[in-house]
Design a protein that fits this description.
Layout: E1 6-13, H1 20-36, H2 40-48, E2 53-58, H3 61-73, E3 78-82, E4 94-103, H4 104-111
Parallel strand pairs: 1-2
Antiparallel strand pairs: 1-4, 3-4
Length: 117
């Protein structure tokens, strides 16, 4: 698996306007959850490349779910994070999606038009 350009993207809802700390925790939850679901060989290769992560913005819950489904349809590992609601948002709020780690080209096919956070 060497020679691949691997990355993970994390999509964050902008309509929630989460405080920085809460946002950071949600991004971390998404990243870790996706890695735990990923193939061990892919994770090893991604780690050897520096574990690139890109955080991107989506408009709202509908867009978040749309990209989650697109990733799954393309056979990519994806994790959708639903908050427990213990702090600043309601229980069950969908906050983030992580896609990958996987080949940059496969992920970009879905997410390339999304803006950076």
């Amino acid at each position: 698996m060497t020679g691949l350009n691997l990355k993970q993207v994390i999509l964050v809802r902008q309509d929630l306007k989460l405080p920085k700390g809460k946002l950071s925790a949600q991004v971390a939850h998404a990243s870790v959850e996706a890695v735990l679901k990923s193939d061990a060989k892919l994770i090893k290769a991604w780690r050897s490349e520096g574990m690139a992560k890109i955080v991107l913005k989506v408009k709202d819950e509908n867009n978040l779910i749309k990209y989650f489904q697109l990733a799954k349809d393309e056979g990519l590992t994806a994790s959708l994070i639903t908050d427990a609601g213990k702090t600043v948002i309601a229980p069950g709020t969908k906050t983030c999606v992580a896609i990958g780690p996987d080949e940059e080209e496969k992920i970009d096919k879905i997410t390339s038009e999304l803006p950076l956070l």
